[in-house]
Specification:
alpha/beta; 10 helices
């Protein structure tokens, strides 16, 4: 399991969340300037040194390999434009996005390190070509792919964690649940606690008659 998986916009955020103990991080840095991408990826790799955080780089897998990142995360369109053997030769761990059954089959053929499934709920962060999968489909897909580490993503916040975790996925990716929080470190800690103890209420207490 990858645990809480924070998707972050720059190396500064990566450093904050690595120091907060978030176990899995993704740098999703958007720039058309190759030099800027190189600097940001290198800074993010440096930011997680001395921590236990696993750092995945979105899209820029060759830069990730050059800078010594743990892994890369690709969308389906990126995978189609890349020879899988080239990525495998770098030693990078590979995560793949999926948005429904057909993309899950393509991802499975690539034997990635994990599969991300979404968007579970509606999200305003990017235009999605498919409708939200919803927790029901997520549960069905999680059963089909139970031999992989699975990451649920898309519109997930602390209130929605219990029904997402009930699907059987072991990890949850969040973006604005952390980056838009008034206290990101505290929110990350709360999310990690809920992942470890999903039966707790948002207040941190267990419902009556819940086994310890």
């Amino acid at each position: 399991r990858l645990g809480l998986y924070a998707v972050l916009p720059d190396a500064g955020w990566v450093e904050r969340m690595a120091r907060a103990g978030v176990p899995t991080l993704q740098l999703r840095f958007k720039s058309e300037d190759p030099a800027a991408v190189q600097r940001e990826v290198a800074a993010a790799v440096q930011a997680v040194r001395g921590t236990k955080a696993l750092l995945f780089i979105n899209d820029h897998w060759q830069v990730a390999a050059d800078c010594g990142a743990y892994g890369a995360h690709l969308g389906q369109e990126d995978l189609e434009a890349t020879r899988l053997s080239d990525i495998q030769a770098t030693g990078l761990r590979l995560g793949l996005s999926t948005h429904g059954y057909a993309e899950m089959l393509r991802a499975d053929a690539a034997s990635p390190s994990y599969i991300a499934m979404g968007a579970v709920f509606a999200t305003t962060l990017k235009r999605m070509a498919t409708a939200p999968q919803g927790p029901g489909r997520l549960r069905a897909y999680a059963q089909l792919l139970r031999h992989y580490p699975l990451v649920a993503i898309g519109g997930i916040d602390e209130a929605r964690l219990p029904e997402v975790l009930a699907s059987g996925v072991g990890s949850v990716a969040v973006v604005r649940a952390i980056t838009a929080a008034a206290n990101p470190q505290a929110r990350a800690s709360a999310l990690m606690r809920r992942l470890l103890h999903p039966s707790e209420n948002a207040s941190g207490t267990r419902p009556a008659n819940t086994p310890q």
